[in-house]
């Protein structure tokens, strides 16, 4: 049995990822800041774990409670409260980076001892096309009109840290996914993809075997070239 931890798994993309991986036969631990919000995950058959990616003690406690771990899906993220230059300051930038980037580092580092005991350790980091500069400057792309700075910058960092983790851990399969413009709470459900479509890349990367790709950036159509 494959054991999987998903952060931010109480709703939207995280919850749908949990549903699909449970359907694929995984034992899923659904990490979330408030376990009281986990009824939907519980109804799917997931084990709910209190996990706040911004709190080192919470991360340590959550990982210590797991008996084993094969797959880590770093899905938790926030949009932030800055949408342009005029409302941007260092504190708002730091808030987004703390969750979206440092949160991945906290959880991944805490998960390494368990993952190293797995026969097929897999990590999937959920990023976004807005973290890919080529998409931000290509007219016609969904990402092109986005004016905000913290969220795209954080997702660019997620893509880079994924590549570097993969280089440092060659026995792992470590990749990064772009959900695409998906209808979630992030965008007032204005995205043109369903949450199932938005989890296609994440789920596919969570299911890779020992000979699968590593250090790659994928959307639901496949690899995005660097």
Question: Could you walk me through the main structural features you see in this protein, from its secondary elements to its overall organization?
Answer:
The chain has helices at 12-23, 39-44, 56-64, 90-115, 133-136, 150-168, 195-198, 200-206, and strands at 3-6, 27-32, 47-50, 71-74, 122-126, 173-177, 217-219, 222-224. It is globular and about 45 Å long. The mean pLDDT is 95. The longest helix has 26 residues, at 90-115. Helix 3 (56-64) packs parallel to helix 4. Helices cover 38% and strands 15% of the residues. It has 226 residues and is of the alpha/beta class. Strand 2 (27-32), helix 2 and strand 3 (47-50) form a beta-alpha-beta unit.
Question: Keywords, please?
Answer:
eight-stranded mixed beta sheet; alpha/beta; 226 residues
The low-confidence parts are none
Q: What is the arithmetic mean of pLDDT? A: 95
- As a percent range, the share of strand residues is 15-25%
Helix content: 25-40%
Rg from alpha-carbon coordinates: 16 Å
Overall SS class = alpha/beta
Shape: globular
Distance between the termini: 34 Å
Largest sheet: 8 strands, mixed
Helix and strand pattern: EHEHEHEHEHHEHHEE
Number of DSSP E strands? 8
Number of helices: 8
Sheet with most strands: strand arrangement: 3-2-1-4-5-6-7-8
């Amino acid at each position: 049995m494959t054991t999987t931890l998903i952060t931010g798994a109480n709703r939207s993309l995280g919850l749908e990822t949990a549903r699909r991986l449970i359907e694929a036969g995984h034992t899923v631990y659904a990490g979330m800041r408030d376990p009281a919000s986990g009824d939907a995950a519980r109804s799917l058959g997931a084990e709910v774990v209190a996990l706040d990616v911004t709190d080192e003690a919470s991360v340590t406690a959550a990982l210590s409670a797991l008996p084993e771990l094969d797959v880590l899906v770093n899905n938790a993220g926030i949009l932030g409260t800055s949408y342009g230059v005029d409302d941007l300051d260092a504190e708002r930038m730091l808030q987004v980076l703390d969750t979206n980037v440092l949160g991945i580092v906290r959880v991944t580092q805490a998960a390494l001892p368990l993952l190293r005991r797995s026969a097929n350790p897999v990590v999937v980091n959920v990023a976004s096309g807005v973290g890919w500069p080529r998409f931000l400057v290509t007219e016609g792309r969904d990402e092109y009109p986005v004016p905000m700075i913290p969220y795209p910058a954080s997702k660019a960092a997620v893509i880079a840290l994924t590549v570097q983790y993969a280089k440092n851990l060659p026995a792992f399969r470590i990749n990064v996914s772009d959900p695409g413009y998906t209808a979630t709470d992030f965008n007032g459900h204005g995205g043109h993809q369903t949450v199932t479509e938005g989890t296609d890349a994440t789920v596919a990367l969570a299911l890779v075997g020992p000979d699968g790709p590593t250090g790659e950036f994928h959307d639901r159509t496949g690899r995005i070239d660097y």
